[in-house]
Amino acid sequence: MAYTEEELKKELETKVYEYGFVTNIESDTIPKGLDEQTVVTISKKKQEPEWMTQWRLEAFRVWKEMEEPEWANVKYEKPDFQNISYYSAPTKKPKYNSLDEVDPELLDTFKKLGISLDEQKKLTGVAMDVVMDSVSVATTFKKTLAEKGIIFCSISEAIREHPELVRKYLGTVVPQKDNFYAALNSAVFSDGSFCYIPKGVRCPMELSTYFRINQAGTGQFERTLVIADQGSYVSYLEGCTAPSRDENQLHAAVVELIAMDDAEIKYSTVQNWFPGDKDGKGGVFNFVTKRGLCEKNAKISWTQVETGSAVTWKYPSCILKGDNSIGEFYSIAVTNHFQQADTGTKMIHLGKNTRSTIISKGISAGQSQNSYRGLVQVGSRAENARNFSQCDSLLMGDRCGAHTFPYIEAKNSTAMIEHEATTSKIGEDQIFYCNQRGIDTEKAIALIVNGFSKEVLNKLPMEFAVEAQKLLEISLEGSVG
Amino acid sequence: MLEIKDLHASIEGKEILKGINLRVNAGEVHAIMGPNGSGKSTLASVIAGKEEFEVGRGSLFLEGEDLEDMAPEERAHNGIFLSFQYPVEIPGVSVTNFIKTAINESRKARGLEDMPANEMLRLIREKSELLEIDRKFLSRSLNDGFSGGEKKRNEIFQMAVMEPKLAILDETDSGLDIDALRIVAHGVNKLRSKDNAIIVITHYQRLLEHIVPDFVHVLHDGKIVKSGTKDLAHELEEKGYDWLKQEKLV
pTM (2 decimals)? Predict the structure, then answer.
């Protein structure tokens, strides 16, 4: 019997899957809950090839068998995984007609951060007067990259347009079964960035998620994959200083970096997710798995400024597989009010003559808890491994806490591992000294915090550094006891 | 310039200043001496506005303005400078950066714009030469790892840059060797003018040979018990504080 157009249209509107689940493809959000059908729905909505759907299902099955980890030095109410909607379409239409409709406190923060009005509109979903502007900017950007053969797009697009690359590298640095949240992410990741730099190419500009072609709002389960082919270089910026009032409580992202022989990847993050209110209610849980793999003579640097989220749990790490490879980790983690952070890094030395540098600065204020957890592991065949770790804590007031959990596992006697740690407190005497020189208390704290964080701030790309500095000041406002 | 009348101050319930009367005019240098625990540093802190001290009875006026409700940074903007007995360390903040911030905050308070970079550079260079401070010193973290002498010299360097109306030097001579003392005293003397005033707090007469005071006051148990000229300092040095007991002053 001939297949009429009407029948086809009807079939496309409602589809019955093998699993016996009926869904309406056109709708924007799928019902809450997570089972195999949800995973399939997500994959189909994104029009993914079958191998991708299967990969997700494998991850889901593994996740079901896993137990939520509890070893971090953080206390929080566990998310109810069945009470989350795992897919909602990006909002293309703006939510407001003018900035007057936006939360004034939010606007105040934008102003302090020096964010332009146009940018504010974009960030809050206000209709922009000149839509062409943003389109033309993205277009020029894309052209420059295309000329060099650089691929920079959303991971969803990459799965469709460059499946060979994705299939080859996805999950090679963070396998599906790596940990509970990585497994969850692998099953339900919504979007993220994909970046491929061809051999010998030095990416001429900083790649920022802001310029990502898919302008969707940042999802809960972002998956990012950056591949720097032999001899290439890329600097990637993630996040923004503007506060994100995202209603999604759980953010479980996965970032995989692959630096092939002689390549270098610089990955910078500034994170300011909603930290919860002054009484510790609400706020985002930021549970992230980030890992980079270095081949011979390759280098990966992670630089992060974390000021938001109610709970932050992440250890950007480097696997120094190739000989002479280098891993670096520079971090400032700020916690205020009732925030908690358990963050640090893992440097795994496997090749010969590998080097790693860790500089971690924790600033605690209010009643927050800030923990550094680091692992330096030297494999038995890792000759001449060198590591330098410096972990400094700054306490503001008497009710906050700073903790350090450094782990060192060296299986090769030629390893040289150095660890330094300091804990200091912003004392009243320091504040008074500044006051007496005409510097008011707020400015004094900014000065002291900036001095404390300088080493890490200097590692950020310039525009980010300036914003990050202002962000530090703002997140510590009102923290003087 | 500075008018203190019957000033009382206490900390954690304990009264330290029990009725201070002092009048310092522009162009004058006053020395305050006294045994340990007499309240010398407390007096310095109270004038500078340290909030731990509770000011009870009495008044504190700078050029006719009541300092009582003025925050320490405001007092600084109005021209008060305290050279600390134990300067605190601020790691990560260079001497230059700190001075720049201090100068510009004061300018801001007076409605002025930030000092232009080349002017700032010239000012810092001029004053560092005065205090014989090496250029490299300026990029070190404030007081971090400084010797006692270096800290005190850095205090006077800041004083030179900020050009205060009223400078209080709290035991600036303690921890200084002969050469450092000479340099610091020279710096202070260069800053003396008919428009500003200096209060020198010290145990020893030695500093006063270099920074010659117009008036000397002896502080004992929270009160000024005797005032005189620089000769009083000599007498005190010869006879010791016990002499005050004999004179039935205490």
Answer: 0.78
Domain that holds residue A169: 140-475
State the ipTM, two decimals.
0.94
Q: How many other C-beta atoms lie within 10 A of the C-beta of residue A131?
A: 9
- B102 and A439 within 8 Å at the Cβ level: the answer is yes
Q: Which residues of A touch B93 (CB under 8 A)?
A: 447-448, 450-451
List the beta strands (DSSP E) in chain B: 2-11, 14-24, 29-33, 54-55, 59-62, 65-66, 80-83, 90-94, 141-142, 166-170, 197-201, 215-220, 223-228
How many CB contacts within 8 angstroms connect chain A with chain B?
Answer: 77
Confidence of residue A437 (pLDDT cuts 50, 70, 90): very high
- Cα(A33)–Cα(B26) distance, rounded to whole angstroms? 79
| A422 or A276, greater pLDDT | A422
Q: List the structure tokens of A272.
A: 């300011």
For position B99, which CATH number holds? 3.40.50.300
- In angstroms, the separation between the Cα of residue A475 and the nearest Cα of chain B is 20
Give the long-range contacts of residues A84-87, CB within 8 A, separation 24 or more: A84/A32, A84/A34, A84/A220, A84/A248, A84/A250, A85/A29, A85/A30, A85/A31, A85/A32, A86/A30, A86/A34, A86/A38, A86/A42, A86/A188, A86/A190, A86/A221, A87/A29, A87/A30, A87/A38, A87/A41, A87/A42, A87/A45, A87/A188, A87/A190
Residue type, position A175, single letter: P
Tell me which residue has tokens 């670096």.
Answer: A328
Residue at A372 is within a domain: yes
* Residue A151 within a domain: yes
Is residue A135 domain-resident? no
Tell me the per-residue pLDDT of B120-165, one tens digit each, with 9 for 90 and over: 999 999 999 888 888 888 989 998 888 888 899 999 999 999 999 9
Range of the domain at B31: 2-246
In a domain, A254, yes or no: yes
Tally the domains of chain A: 1
Chain A (462-481) residues lying within 8 Å, Cβ to Cβ, of chain B? none
* Cβ pair A424:B91 closer than 8 A: yes
Total structural domains in chain B?
A: 1
Output the average pLDDT for chain A: 81
| Structure tokens, A271 | 């994170």
Indicate if the pLDDT at residue B77 is higher than 50: yes
Instruction: Of A100-104, A126-130, A194-198, give the range with the top mean pLDDT.
Output: A194-198
**Cα A434 to Cα A447: distance, rounded to the nearest angstrom:** 9
C-alpha–C-alpha distance, residues A197 and A195, integer Å: 7
Q: How confident is the model at residue B243 (pLDDT cuts 50, 70, 90)?
A: confident
Percent of chain B topping pLDDT 90: 62
